[in-house]
Amino acid sequence: MSKRLSQHFPVELSIVIPLLNEAESLPELTRWINRVLSQHGLTYEVILIDDGSTDNSWEVIEELAADDLHLRGIRFNRNYGKSAALNVGFRETTGRVVCTMDADLQDSPEELPDLYRMITQEGFDLVSGWKKKRFDPLSKTIPTKLFNGVTRWISGIKLHDFNCGLKAYDSRVVKSVEVYGEMHRYIPVIAKWAGFRKIGEKVVQHQERKYGTTKFGLERFVYGFLDLMSITFVSRFRRRPMHFFGTLGTLSFLVGMLITLWLVAEKVWLAAHNLRARDVTAQPLFFLALVAVIVGVQLFLAGFLAEMVQLSGAHRNDYLVREKLNLK
């Protein structure tokens, strides 16, 4: 085992489970996790994040934690969303490997040992589950396929199922990324832009929902697309916004100026040859050129202001260090 893997961690595996109104499934889920990980001899902790449940989920968590030393609980004052729950849970993990899964029993704990092995022995930074055979209605599976296809194309990450809640991470990944908004489905994208590029995939078992109803609607795909645009932009241009706005602004300004010069030159040439010519300002193309010049100047100024904000930010020089050798 490498020195990197031999570093001390209180437990080998941390399992982060966000939940909303899943009181019925929690006892069965925690027993299942305990049985599987005990059989494989893994030390572990389970962190349950109650994301503002309105049923008795928290009371169930309290009862389970009283009898299970592996279990830890976090309760939000209101519903903040899955991304917030994962972000808070990630900060509390102490394991060498961190796994996430849903609380509705559709993710199987039987997959956890193999996911742990893929991180520790095969050297993956992140392993995402792929629910190749799903037990969801077409109203959910068809938009999911479309969503995954677009995300693969934009991110360049060859995963079949970005939405799968069953994932495993090297602990450095979850300690290095921040998840907010609805970004939980894009953690592989965030991790890639943070420099964690060894991303794998594992076919996992998907089970029919046993208790309760799904908490997600079709609107999540609309929000998901907007979030993808946001995370792609922020990841690429957060530290150099002028490269984005300045480039677009310069191109727009140059196009407007070239059109204006063409119109002026055409007017002069026609006048020199005693030909009839319209006034430059009487041509619609002139006003399009004027708009392009104004937009170009505005984009350039936006890039300049964004650079000033970036330079004054508290995290402008935060860089992720993967490992250190012989340093105090």
Order of helices and strands: EHEHEHEHEHEHHEHHH
Classification by helices and strands: alpha/beta
CATH level-1 class of the largest domain = Alpha Beta
Rg is 26 Å
What percent strand?
5-15%
CATH architecture group name of the largest domain: Alpha-Beta Complex
Fold and architecture overview:
Helices cover 48% and strands 12% of the residues. It is an alpha/beta fold. The chain has two domains: 11-237, Spore Coat Polysaccharide Biosynthesis Protein SpsA, Chain A (Alpha-Beta Complex); 241-312. A seven-stranded mixed β-sheet has the order 3-2-1-4-6-5-7, sandwiched between helices.
Secondary structure: elements and pairs:
Elements: E1 11-19, H1 26-39, E2 44-50, H2 57-67, E3 71-75, H3 82-92, E4 95-100, H4 112-120, E5 126-130, H5 138-155, E6 167-170, H6 171-176, H7 187-193, E7 199-203, H8 219-237, H9 241-272, H10 284-312
Parallel strand pairs: 1-2, 1-4, 2-3, 5-7
Antiparallel strand pairs: 4-6, 5-6
